[in-house]
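S1.2 Input.
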Amino acid sequence: MSMQLQQLRYFATVAEVRHFTRAAKQLGVSQPTLSKQIHTLEHALGAPLFDRSRGSVVLTTAGETLLPLARRVVADADSARDAVQEVVGLRRGRVRLGATPSLCTSLVPVVLREFHAQHPDIELRVDEGGSQDLVADLVAHSLDLALIVEPARGTDPALETVPLLRESLVVASVSPLSQRISLADLRDTPLVMFRPGYDLRDTTLEACRRAGFTPRYAVEGGEMDAVLAFVEAGLGVALVPSMALVNRPLLHAATLVAPGVHRTIALAQRRESVLPHAAQAMRATLLDHVARGPLPAGVRPL
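S1.3 Output.
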């Protein structure tokens, strides 16, 4: 059996976009060339990787098995290329950073500005998402680093994390509440709730449980921007990081009385992988910025 790195890259791209024409355009090759390479890979493996019979591109069981392995091989090859280029003085590289939405609108832009000033030739890619999605992307080798919310149950054993920040949550509302309130005061107040799998949903539900009640939902299913828009529409209130209300003049923030609700932001990476030099530099920039500040409101270093 003979597999080429290029074939695995082609396969992973088709699997990501689920469309041969778009994948070929993204890869900069013709569609016949892409299709031929996929057929060659399937022949080498002795199994079809895509089901093309229903007018769409769907992974077969063999394709689903190969995909995480192909992503890992391609990511490791890219990391090796970037590392060698940096060693020989080409000053090129790429950093793939993931972060939660509240951090993408506060801490991350400042850190990226500092990093870009020091390393203007490094390509930057930022993925915004919930912590569970970011962890999955890290494990799948789609990210180098991620700023995640550290769950109480612990993170995936495949990851190494460094706690960075303690983040306070506030109650966002369109009409002013008391300046300081107890979470129990929201017992009869409809909440705008994040979608399942979003870390702030788990944080809110656990905080309400500790306060002795099960929250009543006005609407549920959104991510940060949608939740804040629903609150602005007067549908209910939401428990959010204070930094998420920056540039949201229609919303008011009520501070929770002690002990309040907090969460820990950690910097995560794969435990067994060596970071490319560019990602190592980004990690150093992040740690340095957190150590010396300034930090967004409602956040303090650990």
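S1.4 Remarks. The CA atoms of residues 49 and 63 lie 4 Å apart.
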